[in-house]
Specification:
- The protein is mainly alpha-helical and 129 residues long.
- It has eight helices and no strands.
- Helix 2 crosses helix 3.
Amino acid sequence: MPFNEQIREYREQLEITQTEAAYRLGIDHSVLSKYELGKLEIPIQLLREIRRVYAIPKEKFMDMLEDTRHKSSNPGLEARENKSRYITELQNELNSDLYNLKEFRYFLHHINSLEIKEVKSLLMKLYDN
């Protein structure tokens, strides 16, 4: 499978949108779409950022570049581990700035007291504004 398709598949496995991924990569989401569809070649300088943002292990990333896919004995576990690495990387990136804001700490406290469906509804309202 070509690298561009593997990157799209990996992003989808992380359950992140093109918009989120593009924002974190510092590119427009339409450009990311073209990369994933193979309509544009991914610049070499962006490869390092893709690996960092998606938190792809070095060995896995090399396999993706070389188009040598390994069969996972437990794809579900691998997907959860990939997502966990991504979320940890995102938290590390955001922690220092956000936790210094009292408004964010209040927001977290408020969200913690809500049901998941209420949190999702609240976040969708914020996203729409």
